[in-house]
Structure formats: C-alpha cells, structure tokens
Amino acid sequence: MKIGELAERTGLAPSRIRFYERIGLLRAVERQANGYRRYPAEAVLALQLITTAQRVGFSLDELRTLLPGDLAQWEHGALLDALHRKVADIEALQLQLARGKAQLVELIGQIQAKPQDMGCEANARRVLAGMRLTETDDARPPATARKPARR
C-alpha cells in the first residue's frame, strides 16, 4: 500500500510515518521503480504498536531496541521484562506525583491558614519557616552514615 492509504488506515500523518521509517522503527518498506514507498499490510500493526507504546510512556529509543523487524522474531521474555520495567517506572512516577501533590495541598493549607491580622510577607515567612525539606531529607544518607553532630 502507498503512504496515503497507510496514513488513512492508521490516522497518522505521512510525515510521521516517514519519520518512523527514517529512525528505523518502521522497516520492510520497499521502494518502487518510480520512487514511491510501498508498505506491507503489517505496517499498520507496527504503527499501531509504536503509537500505543508511546502513549503508555515508551520512548522512541526504547521502542527501537524493543521492536523486532519481524513480529515472528519477538523475544517473549525480553518483551515481558521491558513491560514490567515500564510498569515499575510508572508506579515510581505515580508515587513521586502523589508525594508532590500532598506537599502542594499541605502548602495550600498553610497559606490559607494565614491569621487575619498577619500580612502576606509575614505569612510567607511563617509558611517558609515551617516547610519540611522532604526532597533533601530523602536524598540525605541514613543517620548511621552521617557524621555525629558537634556539641
């Protein structure tokens, strides 16, 4: 099939299809004598896999190493490992986002708890003085690895 038909069947712009071909994600493309590209029927499936994988967080570099030239050559174990790693990455990101959200909600509450008789600058100082350093606390080594405090 020609690129126009492939674009229509996948919903992708021809420029996007050519881009995937240029970076090596879309293979098995033949050139006809007139220079037109001729795509096999499997190109629809390959493009659907690429776009779905991108939507769930796979980078183009990850896809390049993951996708075989021929689906019959797909290594079951390697595919499952990559999918499990991506799920773990997503879970770590969810945890990071949940922590960030909790910190923002807490900050909003502290700002909104401004006493009536307090100005904005004083409230900002109050809030900043009470902020926890959760990001840097997480990055600090365990207490046993730290130097003892001087007395």
Structure write-up:
This protein is mainly alpha-helical and 151 residues long. The chain is built from seven helices and two strands; from the N terminus they run H-H-E-E-H-H-H-H-H. Strand 1 and strand 2 form a beta hairpin.
Any descriptors?
151 residues, mainly alpha, Multidrug-efflux Transporter Regulator, Chain: A, Domain 2, 2 strands, 3% strand, disordered C terminus
Task: List the SSEs and their pairings.
Layout: H1 3-10, H2 14-22, E1 30-31, E2 37-38, H3 42-55, H4 60-66, H5 76-112, H6 120-130, H7 134-139
Antiparallel strand pairs: 1-2
Which topology of the largest domain does CATH recognise? Answer: Multidrug-efflux Transporter Regulator, Chain: A, Domain 2
Structural class: mainly alpha
Number of strands: 2
CATH secondary-structure class of the largest domain: Mainly Alpha
- Principal-axis shape: elongated
Order of strands across the main sheet: 1-2
Round the Cα radius of gyration to an integer and report it. Answer: 26 Å
The number of helices is 7
Low-confidence stretches: 134-151
